[in-house]
Every structure is written in structure tokens, then in C-alpha cells.
Write a structure and sequence with these properties.
The two termini are 34 Å apart. This protein has 586 residues and is α/β, with parallel strands linked by helices. Among the domains are: 83 residues, 2-Layer Sandwich (Gyrase A, domain 2); 95 residues, no CATH class. The strands form four sheets. A four-stranded antiparallel sheet has the order 1-2-4-3. Strands 6-5-10-11 form a four-stranded parallel sheet, sandwiched between helices. Helix 16 packs across helix 19 and helix 17 runs antiparallel to helix 19. Helix content is 51%, strand content 10%. The chain is globular, with a radius of gyration of 29 Å.
Length: 586
């Protein structure tokens, strides 16, 4: 279905064309002055310079070409703004179309195949709060892009290779030298069961990493273990597989708590065979050159305002870097999936790295010319003191710990509510906690830093996830009392809005599709958060000002309930795009 904005734009474009002007000038947009109109068109002002005519004259000619049955009225305001008020009949028509549309008005774009790189955890390390934003933003973007018709593959992109693996393996050798993995003469089958638990594994790396910084001999051993692993030592490879099994199982468990899923569980190890041939070809093609022993690619461009350092693809000792594995990963994705776009959801402090990598990938021909390479950089999650969020002891907080703390905060509030059965309190607290965390992150523009304030995020009032859920549960409760199914389209007896609050709710509902479209175009989940908050506020104003269940006029009551049914459908679909869901009761 066409959104109201699309309907208005089509009519205005035809009017501009009929009046002798470029049809593209007829774009309708949300009004900056809602008291003057629902939408506005500034095309007459843009046309004035091009056609050397007063904008007021152009506006008069254009409005004169608008059909009488267009479904909106147009009013000109000096010096040439065209304010548009949607007619009640068009609102009613569009509400019926929205309710009947399986996609709730979300327009489908030309389908793209997209690889979405988000998550980025390291194997053998626990997820910590630094992994939260990538997971939450990435999952929401995946859902939004799918909603507009894209085929999206989410790739966790594991850090599962390199010195960190050598450190873990070497420390295991120190602690358990009797294990068969370290016996070069061992010929049998390696044990099925891993020789460590996830807790033991997660303790190994920080211990080994700290020791390697003060003990050169120990670090040399870890580097040798890394070399043996990468050279294919059977024992070290078998042990590495056990590390992967235990660590990935724990990662999946933690991501499941966040309701975050990945279609691909690939890592740096997957592209290791590609590194040497890729670098050799860059050298043969004259793209990579020696500079102080290292191989580098000049990625500077004449339009650069700042000097951009070259991209290092091989260190002077022959070692690969993150840039090397990222380039090989791009080449692999191009070969396996032929995506139209590859999107990375990674800390904004990596912006220069991705600029270097993207330019190198294009220069080396690792992707087709039309393949989009995009970095969605996000800011840091800070504590109330404005510095990166930490534990009370000053360390980096585990993600599991954060989720548990938020749950504890929430379950107390839920248990105070007599509407929730005691046996349902924990599951309800899980859902509300997830909404608090995800919405608290997503309502910020991704690139901005934000303060993680659990007291604020867990509040049932204001711009918070729990407030949105409370609004959805309130609508559900009213429909239940009215004996109306919550299934979308259960009621379609829409009527023309009468009050200002009802009109505001109707127009907000009708903007859902264009909001999702914009969020997909700009890779901006915060636009859906702003929409959801606006819709929740619009509904609550309507609810407080309107007698719904006690309305004596059956026609009006049916119209109100139809509006509630649609509000419930849109709100639940919107929060699904953000990555959480509403409970039955709160």
C-alpha cells in the first residue's frame, strides 16, 4: 500500500507537472508546524530560483491544479509554503488499507542481499558490556532491513585465531602437560570431552595475557604455540576445536538471552588459507609495496581533507593484521554470497581502519564495483560519571552480570504488581529487562555515546522500553475486556477521527511504513524508537481523553476498538523490529 506521504507526493508531483514545473518538486514531508497542517510541500520555494518566478505565484498555480477529490486540502503561506491537511475520508480509507496490509504499510524496496557483520566476540573470552551495542544495533538493523524486503545474513565474525589462541593453549600446556594434545607421538583419538569448563577457559586467557606482558620467555612460548596451531599441528588443532566448541556454546547461550541470532558463525580462522595468495597478488599487481619492511597499500585520494595512512597488509615479520583478515573476509563474502552490500556494526573508533580496508578492497578488486561497503560506527556506553561503564570494582563488566543486575532490579517491580501471577514474574521480568536494555541503547543515535542509567531505563514512565511495553499491555487489556481478539485485523470498523487526540493517533499510525523505510535507508533504529514513543504517547492521550468501553454509541465504540486493535498491531511489530517483545501482563 502507498503511505499517506506517498499519496500526497504523487498528487502534488502531478500538480507541479500540470502547472509546467518539474514533478520532483512535489515532495510532501511531515509538517514543521503541525498546527498549520499535517504535511507540507516546499517545492514552490525551490522552483522560484530555477524558473525565475515568485514562489507565491508558483504555489498558487500548483494548488490550482490539485483535483478537488485529492483527499487533502492545500493552503498557501507566504512566501510560498504549501500546507496540507489530510481529509477525514482519506484517513479512514488509509486506516482500512493499513489494517488489511500484511506488512502494515512497510514498503518493499528492490531486494538486496546483505551481509551484516555484528557481534565480533573473541573466543575463550566472556562477552562483556563492550559487546552489547554491536549485538543490539546489529540485530535491530537485520530485522529492519528484512522488513523492507532485503535478504540479510548476520555474521558474528569471531576472533578465533592469532596470539590469543596461542596464549590459551600454552597456559593449558603449563597446567596440564599430561594431556595428549601436547604429546607429539600421540597416535590415537583425542578425547571427546573438553579438558576444561567454560569458567576455567575464561580464566585462562586473562591470566596468560597478563603473564605474557612481564615474562618474555612465556610470551615466546605462546608465539610458538600460535605458530604450531597455524601450521596445522594435529594436537593443537584438536585442542583449538575444543576451545571453539565450549566457547561458542557459551556465546550462543548469552546471545540467546539478548534474543540475538546469527546465520553465520564464521571467524578469522576461516580465511587463513586466503591470506598469503591475496597478499601475493596485491604485490604482483603493484598495489602492495614495501615500506620499512612491511607491505602497505596507498589508500589516499585527492579529495581527502586529512592525510590517510596507508593500509598495512603484512608486518615486516610476515605476520598478518586485522586489516589482512578483514580484507580476506570481504573476498570470501564476495565469492560465497555475492552480496549487494556488506555492513559492519563496529565501534566508531575503528572508522579509519574501515576506510583503509574498504579502499584497499576496491583497489585490489576484492569486490564488484557496485558492492556497497558500509561502517555503522557506534559510540561508547558510559556510566553516570561519563566514563566507559565498569563494575563497582572498576573492571569491565561481563554482559551476563549486567543482564542479571537489570533482572534483579526489574523482578522486584514486577512482583509488586498484582496483575502478574507469581509463577509468571520471572519470565515477565526477563522480557521487561530486555526491553529496558535494548530500548535504552537504541533510542540514541548509534554514533553517539550515551549514559547507561538502569534506574532511568527501568522506569515505567518516560521514554523507556518498560513504558512502551506498559502501553501495549494496556491496549491488550482493553481489547480483552471488550472481548476482542488481539489478532491484527480483528476489527476494521474505522471511522473518521473526531477529536484532536484521535486524529493525532490516526496520523501517527499511518506514518509507520514510511518510518521503517527511513530507518532502513539511513540504518537508523533510533528513528523507530522515536516513532514508537510518539505512538505510545498519542495512544495514551487518546485513551485518557476518550470513553472507549463505556461509549454508548455502538458505531463509535467499534471504531475506537478497531483503532486500538491496529495500534496494538503496529506497536508490537515496531518493537519486534527493535528486538524485543511484550509480555501478557505487567
Amino acid at each position: 500500500m502507498n503511505t499517506i506521504q506517498q499519496e500526497l507526493t504523487q498528487t502534488l508531483s502531478a500538480a507541479f507537472s500540470a502547472a509546467g514545473y518539474d514533478a520532483a518538486l512535489g515532495e510532501a514531508r511531515l509538517s514543521d508546524r503541525p498546527e498549520l497542517g499535517d504535511y507540507q510541500c516546499n517545492g514552490a520555494l525551490a522552483a522560484a530560483k530555477r524558473y525565475h518566478k515568485a514562489p507565491l505565484v508558483i504555489a498558487e498555480e500548483v494548488t490550482g491544479a490539485i483535483p478537488a477529490d485529492a483527499g487533502f486540502s492545500a493552503e498557501i503561506v507566504r512566501p510560498g509554503f504549501i500546507n496540507l491537511k489530510v481529509s477525514p475520508s482519506l484517513m479512514r480509507q488509509k486506516l482500512a488499507e493499513l489494517s488489511a496490509d500484511a506488512d502494515l504499510g512497510i514498503p518493499k524496496k528492490a531486494p538486496k542481499k546483505i551481509v551484516l557483520d555484528y557481534g565480533g566476540p573473541n573466543v575463550a573470552k566472556p562477552l562483556h558490556i563492550g559487546h552489547l551495542r554491536s549485538a543490539v544495533i546489529g540485530e535491530s538493523l537485520k530485522r529492519i532491513l528484512r522488513a523492507v524486503g532485503c535478504e540479510v545474513l548476520g555474521d558474528v565474525h569471531l576472533g578465533d585465531w592469532g596470539l590469543q589462541m596461542g596464549l590459551v593453549i600454552n597456559e593449558l600446556r603449563h597446567r596440564n602437560p599430561e594431556l595428549p594434545y601436547f604429546d607429539p607421538d600421540f597416535k590415537g583419538e583425542y578425547p571427546e570431552e573438553a579438558p576444561f569448563t567454560i569458567s576455567e577457559l575464561e580464566e585462562l586467557y586473562p591470566f596468560a595475557s597478563a603473564k605474557s606482558k612481564t615474562d618474555e620467555a612465556y610470551r615466546a612460548e605462546a608465539m610458538e604455540a600460535t605458530h604450531l596451531l597455524q601450521s596445522g599441528d594435529p594436537g593443537y588443532r584438536a585442542l583449538w576445536k575444543k576451545i571453539m566448541e565450549v566457547s561458542v556454546a557459551d556465546l550462543k547461550r548469552n546471545y540467546q538471552r539478548l534474543d540475538v541470532t546469527f546465520e553465520l558463525w564464521k571467524g578469522e580462522s576461516d580465511v587463513q588459507p586466503r591470506l598469503a595468495p591475496m597478499v601475493e597478488k596485491m604485490v604482483a599487481d603493484g598495489i602492495a609495496v614495501r615500506d620499512q619492511g612491511a607491505l602497505v597499500v596507498d589508500v589516499s585520494e585527492p579529495t581527502d581533507k586529512k592525510e590517510l595512512p596507508p593500509c598495512i597488509v603484512q608486518k615486516s615479520d610476515g605476520a598478518a593484521l586485522y586489516s589482512t583478515t578483514d580484507l580476506a573476509t570481504i573476498a570470501e563474502r564476495e565469492e560465497l554470497y555475492a552480496p549487494d552490500a556488506i555492513i559492519y556494526v563496529v565501534d566508531k573508533r575503528q572508522a579509519m581502519h574501515f576506510t583503509q580496508v574498504f579502499r584497499t578492497a576496491r583497489k585490489a578488486g576484492l569486490v564488484r564495483e557496485g558492492t556497497e561497503l558500509t561502517h555503522v560506527g557506534f559510540g561508547t556506553m558510559n556510566g553516570k560519571d561519563g566514563t566507559p561503564f565498569k563494575t563497582r570494582e572498576g573492571g569491565v563488566m561481563r554482559l551476563e552480570t549486567l543482564l542479571n543486575e537489570v533482572n534483579e532490579e526489574m523482578i522486584g517491580k514486577i512482583r509488586e504488581n498484582k496483575n502478574v501471577r507469581a509463577e509468571d514474574a520471572e519470565a515477565t521480568a526477563d522480557m521487561v529487562s530486555l526491553a529496558a536494555i535494548k530500548y535504552g541503547d537504541l533510542w540514541n543515535q548509534a554514533s553517539k555515546d550515551y549514559i547507561f542509567d538502569i534506574e532511568k531505563f527501568a522506569s515505567f514512565e518516560g521514554n523507556t522500553g518498560p513504558y512502551i511495553l506498559y502501553t501495549i499491555v494496556r491496549i491488550s487489556s482493553i481489547l480483552e475486556k471488550a472481548g476482542v481478539s488481539r489478532e491484527r485485523g480483528a476489527l476494521t470498523a474505522f471511522k473518521a477521527p473526531e477529536s484532536a487526540a484521535e486524529k493525532d493517533l490516526v496520523l501517527t499510525l499511518l506514518r509507520f511504513g514510511e518510518t521503517v523505510e527511513k530507518a532502513a535507508e539511513e540504518l537508523a533504529p533510533h528513528k523507530i524508537c522515536a516513532y514508537v514513543y510518539g505512538l505510545a504517547n498519542a495512544f495514551n492521550r487518546f485513551y485518557h481523553e476518550t470513553k472507549i468501553l463505556s461509549e454508548p454509541d455502538e458505531g463509535k465504540r467499534a471504531g475506537y476498538l478497531a483503532l486500538l486493535s491496529l495500534s496494538y498491531a503496529v506497536l508490537t511489530r515496531a518493537i519486534e523490529l527493535l528486538g524485543f517483545a511484550a509480555p501478557e501482563h505487567m
